[in-house]
Specification:
The chain is mainly α. Helices cover 79% and strands 0% of the residues.
């Protein structure tokens, strides 16, 4: 329970920092910062979901981010499993990304939908 509470708090802080970064003027440097903050926030999000599921006694078949996302969706912790899978794939591609067009597309997705999904998770975890 303690680890879950700490991660939940860290996730909330990381989400707020990501939202702050999205308010900045769109320069190459701020976009890079948003992408980096997204990677960190996504990592916290799926690990926090895993901790929550374990705390709820749901421990079977949840190890990888994909498994955690599927289980979190099935129990109603997240509303849009498909966007979370897209977020996971985007996060995975960022570590191998050298294409400005793709990074801009991911940035736009973060701004338009990903951050809202993470905020929704934080709200549910705080209930």
């Amino acid at each position: 329970m303690k680890r879950f509470e700490e991660r939940k708090s860290d996730l909330e802080k990381a989400t707020n920092k990501l939202k702050e970064a999205l308010q900045e003027e769109e320069t190459d440097l701020t976009i890079d910062g948003v992408l980096h903050r997204f990677e960190f926030t996504f990592e916290l999000a799926w690990k926090t979901m895993k901790d929550y599921l374990e705390y709820q006694g749901i421990v079977e078949k949840i190890g990888s981010p994909r498994e955690v996302i599927k289980e979190a969706f099935s129990v109603g912790l997240i509303d849009n499993g498909q966007i979370w899978i897209q977020m996971m794939l985007s996060r995975n591609s960022l570590s191998h990304l050298y294409d400005e067009e793709t990074s801009r597309e991911i940035y736009d997705n973060i701004k338009e939908s990903f951050v809202k999904e993470i905020e929704g998770l934080v709200q549910k975890l705080n209930k």
